[in-house]
Amino acid sequence: MLRNQRGNILFWVISAILFIAIALVLILPSKYNLDPQKNTDDCTTNMKNIWVATSDYLNDFHQDYYGDPQVLLTTRKKDDPKNYYLSSPAYCPESQGGKENYIIFAKYSEEMLGSEMKNNSGILIFCPNLGKFPKHFLDKSFYDNMSTTKLQNYMIDDLNYIDQQTKSNGRAKNDAVMKYIEIWKTDPECYAKRSADMKYLKRMIFPDNEDLKIITEE
User: Fold this and answer.
1) What is the pLDDT of residues 45-103, one digit of tens each?
2) Which of 72, 123, 143, 209 would be a feasible disulfide site paired with 85, CB 3.0-4.6 Å?
3) Rounded to an integer, what distance in angstroms lies between the CA atom of residue 104 and that of residue 67?
4) CA distance 171 to 155
5) Residue 5 CB contacts under 8 Å (≥ 6 apart), including other chains
6) Residue 64 and residue 106: Cα distance in Å, rounded?
7) Whole-prediction pTM value?
8) Domain boundaries defined on the chain
């Protein structure tokens, strides 16, 4: 009789432990962001939404836009005043102990194509945690269904090269994109130089790459 009671107690103890273990397996990933692929997908989705919001903002206001998401969150759309360009704040799910804003950089200019004036904008969106999570990066495929300008296409090509060169090295990728943004910010002739030489900005970021070096005839 006593042996049966001990057996029943042991059974219930083991059952309780298994139940707790299963519950932890199910709860912990969602509670503490332990699913890397989901975090990557959520982060890239955030960046896509911010890119679209920024594109709409540039098309309406025709001006450069550097970085403050509050502008998108508090400015009403010109053609839809009931709504804002960005409906709600978004943060990388890997941010620990704080809500770091995404890095936003956007250039706007106008260019005469034939007899028609066209807007020529380029938008860069980066995760603040790119140094630790190199997959938190908008790759070339994102732009396939987007209406892009010549300037944006230059940026897509350059960023794709940066992605290929840095691969899974988050620190190198982060350093490269920060340097890339800085060149656009500080060089007023950047667009003209990039138009004249498709390797210009790539060479500025990776000066030692053999495929980017200028070949001179002797």
Assistant:
1) 999 999 999 999 999 999 999 888 899 999 999 999 999 999 999 999 998 877 899 99
2) 72
3) 4
4) 20
5) none
6) 6
7) 0.81
8) 1-32, 36-212
